Amino acid sequence: MDASGVLKVSQTSYDYTRPYWDQVGVTIAGRHVFDMTNGWDGTPPSGVDHVVVVTHRPPPEGWDPEGSFHFVDGVEVAVAKARELAGDRIIEVAAGDVGGQVLAAGLIDEVRMDVVPVVFGSGKRFFGSVHAQYLLEDPDVVIQGNRVLHLRYRVRR
């Protein structure tokens, strides 16, 4: 990120991620991500049309129930709502607890991750507290960017 807050990436990373982001119609995220980003200030991120927020709490006061953010209780309901909203566009699911729950429900087709050379001493698991083993196929995309490795795996059925 530069001093203005603009994320700068290599041309290789841009060429990989931009076409994908252009295809995403709905993002499913948990309430923690929603709160941490301050609801993206009311505008879905990266040009996405809708965000489905999985939460047991009501929407924040003042959120338009007809707007681009949809608050639901449970991942199955979230996926159903996202399918309704996405049309022929891609549904992406944020990692973390919600991502792990959607993976455990068998509703994930592929996993994309970006590996950067940083080692944290603590943190959250990529898929939250998943309680079973889920096998992924060998990566069908491996792209070396500038200080990042972009990976894409199909979920083994």
From TrEMBL:
All residue ranges annotated as the Bacterial bifunctional deaminase-reductase C-terminal domain in the record: 76-136
This protein's name: Bacterial bifunctional deaminase-reductase C-terminal domain-containing protein
Organism: Georgenia daeguensis
